């Protein structure tokens, strides 16, 4: 059942493995963010450009303060998280120096998916999370769509199909928004939740788009 799946996935992660997981947007591959060898494994699995950052995934907003320097109201965080949004903030000293060593920022995900939140809570530190696909290929909404990755994974958690398989919008992934500059925001990736996210940032909190 559910508890056994969470425990098995947490054990695989603690052992340094890569685990495929369902999220609220697309399927992902997770490892422990504080495990440098596992982080390197994710890059090699995906054939990912080493200069492209990985997001971290947490189970609760409270834990975000340990790994990030937050310069927006707590209420803003809770209006967007959990949800299909990645918030980019200044990273704290707590985060593994080998994770995205080329940037002082980090993207944070709290997926609105009960399995992912339970798994993140079951692990001691943050998870590093990326989409379950080879870099430059499309996002995946079922486990069969990334079966070429299975041999390289410690565990694949099948949460069934995610979203509407026919809708191209379902494959856009999370909306990525940079909140690292006080009073401003900039959209790094429009993703699947752009309109509601921008509305909250502008109308409720008065943030202004950073001119690119």
UniProtKB/TrEMBL annotation:
Transmembrane segments: none annotated. One of its GO terms (biological process) is regulation of translational fidelity. Its main location: membrane. It is found in: Cell membrane; Cytoplasm; Mitochondrion. Belongs to the SUA5 family. NCBIfam families: L-threonylcarbamoyladenylate synthase. This is Threonylcarbamoyl-AMP synthase.
């Amino acid at each position: 059942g559910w508890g056994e799946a969470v425990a098995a996935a947490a054990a695989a992660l603690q052992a340094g493995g890569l685990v495929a997981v369902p999220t609220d947007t697309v399927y992902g591959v997770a490892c422990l963010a504080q495990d440098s060898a596992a982080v390197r494994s994710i890059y090699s699995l995906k054939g990912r450009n080493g200069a492209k950052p990985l997001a971290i995934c947490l189970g609760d907003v409270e834990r975000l303060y340990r790994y990030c320097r937050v310069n927006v109201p707590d209420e803003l965080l809770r209006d967007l998280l959990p949800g299909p949004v990645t918030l980019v903030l200044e990273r704290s000293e707590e985060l593994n120096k080998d994770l995205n060593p080329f940037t002082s920022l980090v993207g944070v995900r709290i997926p609105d998916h009960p399995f992912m939140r339970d798994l993140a809570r079951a692990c001691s530190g943050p998870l590093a999370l990326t989409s379950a696909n080879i870099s430059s290929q499309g996002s995946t909404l079922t486990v069969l769509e990334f079966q070429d990755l299975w041999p390289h994974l410690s565990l694949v958690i099948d949460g069934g199909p995610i979203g509407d398989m026919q809708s191209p919008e379902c494959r856009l992934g999370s909306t990525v928004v940079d909140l690292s500059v006080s009073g401003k925001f900039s959209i790094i990736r429009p993703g699947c939740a752009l309109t509601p996210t921008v509305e909250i940032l502008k109308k409720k909190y008065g943030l202004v788009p950073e001119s690119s």
